[in-house]
């Protein structure tokens, strides 16, 4: 029987973390558990910065992006000393299990910490990058894609009116998921992702050919892990002599009100995480796959996710 759990958000924030916190707290309380909120992720566990949360303390956060618990990247948690201090906090506050809301860096840390000190940890997959292995959809990815899409739609208006080429950089360090989704839904002409080598010569050939047959505006989406929008735009102008503009969306995609999909995932996964801890489960990440909640061992979840990119790339090209 567990009595007290703690919830934390770690790594890069993702829209939908707040609804996930809300669900963990309210489902925990409904099941007669005490729920503590840890501030600034692992940092808060190391430094004992946590407090009891009740039903009312998560009122009004369901529609807010970011995380009311704050989040941080915490190199100190990689050290023996940091982990030892975090474990002291777990003992001091008699915490029986942790709900870790974050991405693969957070799960890797939770796996090591949980195994070393026998602290049950359940992860909730939240990352705009959607790069958790074994999980189709993470909290925040849909919101980030829709934010990127709004930007593309706006850029399209000016690109068409002024007959220009645009290179739009979206987030995605090692994973082209956001770029592919935005490029497809935005009707973009090309996309560069970290999973494939960038062939700028071929793209420029397409642009010049398009130009000759009257296609004069062009939007190329580039994932940050595949190159910098500014450098690519410069090279396109050098090769084609056509006017090219660069835009980097950056952290704009990390904020904003979570979409219905991001909230629904968050609320369902929050509930599932509490229930998993109550059943005595540990060392697992929860997410959505094929429309269902799935639970994936941390060790599997942190492996490289292989995206099936070929079909999407082909479709983008066919529809150009
Ligand atoms: O959380 C994932 C992510 O947004 C990546 O897409 C991006 O590369 C990284 O985080 C940026 O991290 P930071 O906000 O710490 O610069």
Folded structure, characterized:
With 320 residues, the protein is α/β, with parallel strands linked by helices. The protein has two domains: 4-140 and 258-301, 3-Layer(aba) Sandwich (Rossmann fold); 142-254, 3-Layer(aba) Sandwich (Rossmann fold). It is 42% helix and 18% strand. Strands 3-2-1-4-5-10-11 form a seven-stranded mixed sheet, sandwiched between helices. A four-stranded parallel sheet has the order 7-8-6-9, sandwiched between helices. Helix 5 crosses helix 6 (177-185), helix 6 (177-185) runs parallel beside helix 11 (310-319) and helix 7 packs across helix 8 (229-240). It is elongated and about 70 Å long. It starts with a strand and ends with a helix.
Topology summary:
Blueprint: E1 4-9, H1 17-30, E2 34-38, H2 42-46, E3 50-53, H3 80-92, E4 97-102, H4 104-117, E5 121-125, H5 141-162, E6 165-170, H6 177-185, E7 190-192, H7 200-212, E8 218-223, H8 229-240, E9 244-248, H9 260-278, E10 284-289, E11 292-297, H10 298-301, H11 310-319
Parallel strand pairs: 1-2, 1-4, 4-5, 5-10, 6-8, 6-9, 7-8
Antiparallel strand pairs: 2-3, 10-11
Helix pairs in contact: 1-9, 5-6, 6-11, 7-8
Bound molecules: 6-O-phosphono-beta-D-fructofuranose.
Summarize this entry quickly.
With 320 residues, the protein is α/β, with parallel strands linked by helices. The chain is 42% helix and 18% strand. It folds into two domains: 4-140 and 258-301, 3-Layer(aba) Sandwich (Rossmann fold), CATH 3.40.50.450; 142-254, Phosphofructokinase domain (Rossmann fold), CATH 3.40.50.
């Amino acid at each position: 029987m567990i009595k007290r759990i703690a919830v934390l958000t770690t790594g890069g924030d993702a829209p939908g973390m707040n609804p996930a916190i809300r669900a963990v707290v309210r489902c925990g309380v409904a099941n007669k558990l005490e729920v503590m909120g840890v501030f600034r992720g692992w940092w808060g566990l190391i430094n004992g910065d946590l407090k009891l949360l009740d039903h009312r303390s998560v009122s009004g956060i369901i529609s807010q992006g970011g995380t009311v618990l704050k989040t941080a990247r915490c190199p100190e948690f990689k050290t023996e000393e940091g982990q030892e201090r975090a474990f002291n906090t777990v003992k001091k506050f008699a915490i029986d299990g942790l709900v870790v809301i974050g991405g693969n860096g957070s799960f890797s840390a939770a796996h090591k910490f949980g195994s070393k000190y026998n602290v049950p940890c359940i992860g909730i997959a939240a990352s705009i990058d959607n790069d958790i292995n074994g999980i189709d959809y993470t909290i925040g990815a849909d919101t980030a894609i829709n934010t990127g899409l709004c930007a593309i739609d706006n850029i399209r208006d000016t690109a068409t009116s002024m007959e220009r080429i645009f290179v739009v950089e979206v987030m995605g360090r090692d994973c082209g998921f956001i770029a592919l989704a935005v490029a497809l839904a935005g009707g973009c002409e090309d996309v560069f992702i970290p999973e494939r080598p960038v062939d700028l010569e071929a793209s420029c050939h397409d642009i010049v050919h398009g130009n000759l047959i009257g296609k004069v505006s062009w939007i190329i989406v580039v994932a940050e892990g595949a190159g910098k929008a500014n450098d690519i735009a410069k090279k396109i102008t050098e090769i084609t002599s056509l006017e090219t503009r660069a835009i980097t969306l950056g952290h704009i995609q990390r904020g904003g009100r979570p979409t219905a999909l991001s909230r629904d995932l968050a609320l369902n996964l929050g509930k599932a995480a509490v229930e998993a801890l109550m059943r005595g489960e540990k060392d697992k990440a929860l997410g959505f796959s094929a429309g269902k909640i799935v639970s994936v061992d941390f060790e599997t979840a942190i492996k490289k996710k292989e995206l099936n990119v070929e079909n999407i790339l082909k479709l983008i090209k066919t529809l150009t």
